[in-house]
Amino acid sequence: MHKTRVSVLAAVLLFLLLFSVFAYSYLSLDLWDYDFWWHISTGRLIVETGSLPDADPFSFVSTLQENENLRPKWENFVLKQYWLCQILFYFIFIKAGPAGIIILRTALLLLTILVVLWQLRRWGVSFYICFVLVFLLFLVTTQFTGERPVLFSILFTPVVFIMLEDFKHRRGKLLYLLPPLMLLWANIHGGFIIGNIMIMVYMAVEGLKALFKKVEYPKNRLALFYGITTLSLAFSYINPTGWDAFLIALSPKYAFLQKDVQEYASPFFHYLNKLQGINTGYAVLACLFPILLIIRNKKMDLAQAILVAGLFIMAAKSSRFIAFFGPVAVMVTGKETNILLQDLLKNRATKRIQKAGASVFILFLLSITVFFLAYGNFRGINFGVAKNRTVPVQAVDFMERNRLPGNIYNSPAFGGYITWRAYPDRMTFIDTRWINSTVQFEWRWINDALDSIYSEELHEGRQPLWRRLLDHYNINLIMINLMDAYGTAPELLLKLPEDRQWALVYADSICAIFVRNVPAYEHIIEQFEQPKENIYNIIIAESAYKSVYKQNPNYLITLGKTFYAMGRLEDAVTAYRYASKRMPGNLWIKKKVDETEAELKQKNED
After folding, report:
1. Rounded CA separation 602/606 (Å)
2. What are the backbone angles phi and psi of residue 515, rounded to the nearest 5°?
């Protein structure tokens, strides 16, 4: 008895230590997500006006009649679906600043892991299996630390799963909480459709089991289950957009809006193109589940197998669904692994493992220590904003301090923060809501510095398309990111330094500001103009530094493009060759190597 108490105490202490490491990791990340800023800007607008917006209030381009939205349901969904979370984020931020949001993010992610652990222990899963799987789930969540409403969906997904499971195995009252939870979820984030799908799967599977006498449910209990689940689906409809989330998710006509959005791409696309490192937690779970499915076969609960298999496929197609696959997969694989090991190891082996408890405790303790030393953030907890990484704090300070006039063309990543700081005095071109497809296309044409969308060769006497669009929208101010999420510098950024119409007046490690060479900006240009080499040198420094510790070949491609823009052809060839080594067989990179080498040879001959 004494040994059992010691073992339980040791396990509790170990998990307390583990969760402390998790908490420190979450808390040490500065507030960084691009979307957060338009969420709290919308929250502020809702609070100040007392109503939900009916049209895009932040983009001056979207409000023009010529850019009437061709996808009104999508616009309505994005404007209204997150309203409750946006108000919550707004009030927390104005009362507690970045610290309040960072603590909220940490609490939601820790709660997700905690409820998963709780369910594993309710199922009697071994302490050893729990430790490993909880650790894997933490690794999954490190990819989803963005301060967005989806954090609630990450938590609510395993909670709904546990409520549905509670009906099957226990006579608890957790299921009674399902309707109010779905009502709350449907007004926080569009991810509530995951909850609805889970409910419908359980309704179908448990109904079939009862019909074919696979499980004996008392009639009153079955009636209660269907009454509560039906009510939960009905409560989901009580939100500003009804079930538009379903229609949008299932309709292919909205797929193009997700183009170039990093989280919608397959994780395998990221891995194969070396754009992102492998998420170890997801990789292990993605390998473990199919193996268990094959071994356990018909012994695995049907509803659980369908849910995890569905989320498995969704996660393989789009990285964003890894966040929902992870918690459910951990619970199901944990239960199945525990059953499998009990069958395989029998009692003798189990007793040996129990005797080795002290050694296992030390091993787990060492693993926590090694992980923390290898991946821990030793800069401490700052409760700050990631102003040197994703948030253009200094650039907007410069813009506001010097009262830069005129319409702005901005990178989508910066749109939300500009809105938070400058709205309603200044409206943006675009942000990461991707509300209007017409504006999205035009932003991309400018960003890519396209001469024409109809032909590769620009007709003589014709202005390039990107210049015509800037003129059309009377844009005199450009705030542009140095590199996108994939490590690629915008083509526009490499064109502007060579264009006499534009002057570089501000540059830092994430952002550059150009103003048009017009009378309204004469005093700004006289006071702040920088030589064009400054922007080139910053891009070179940032991409060279990141290319050293990241395998992403785009940083080397960006180096090559920048050297080429500077006329440093030999350096450009070298950068492209290194990129080719990282992505052998890539025809585009090979073409750039051949073209630049030919140009360099011609230059040397001349």
Report:
1. 6
2. -125, 150
Picking from 441, 416, 443, 440, the residue whose alpha carbon sits closest to that of residue 428 is 416
Cβ(480)–Cβ(466) under 8 Å?
no
**From residue 173, how far is each of 98, 209, 465 by CA, in Å?**
37, 22, 63
Task: For residue range 420-457, list pLDDT tens digits in order.
Answer: 999 999 999 999 999 999 999 999 999 999 998 887 77
Cα–Cα dist 536/493, whole Å: 9
- Which tokens sit at 445? 């044409």
CA distance 539 to 553: 15
Confidence of residue 342 (pLDDT cuts 50, 70, 90): confident
Give the pTM.
0.94
Domain ranges of the chain: 2-30+71-375, 393-605
Report how far residue 491's alpha carbon sits from residue 240's, in angstroms, rounded to the nearest whole number.
40
What is each CA distance from 135 to 11, 25, 186, 340, 367, in whole angstroms? 14, 13, 30, 20, 10
CA 472 to CA 200: how far, in whole Å? 50
The CA-atom distances, in angstroms, between 591 and each of 501, 577, 579, 596 are: 31, 11, 12, 8
What angle, rounded to 10 degrees, do the helices at 150-169 and 178-186 form? 160
CA neighbor of 101 nearest in space, from 165, 157, 144, 151: 151
Amino acid identity of residue 115, one-letter, is: V
Q: Which residue has the tokens 């506001």?
A: 400
- What backbone torsions phi and psi does residue 407 show, to the nearest 5 degrees? -65, 150
Dihedral angle sign, alpha carbons of residues 411, 417, 423, 426 = negative
Which one-letter amino acid corresponds to residue 9?
Answer: L
The answer to whether 58 touches 38, Cβ cutoff 8 Å, is: yes
Cβ neighbours for 355, distance < 8 A, ≥ 6 positions apart: none
**Helical segments of 486-586, H only:** 491-495, 522-528, 532-549, 554-566, 569-582
Evaluate whether 58 touches 439 at the Cβ level (below 8 Å): no
Q: Say which residues have a Cβ less than 8 Å from residue 457's Cβ, sequence separation at least 6.
A: none
In sign, the C-alpha dihedral spanning 303, 306, 309, 310 is negative
- Cα 496 to Cα 337, 415, 447, 563, distances in angstroms: 58, 20, 11, 15
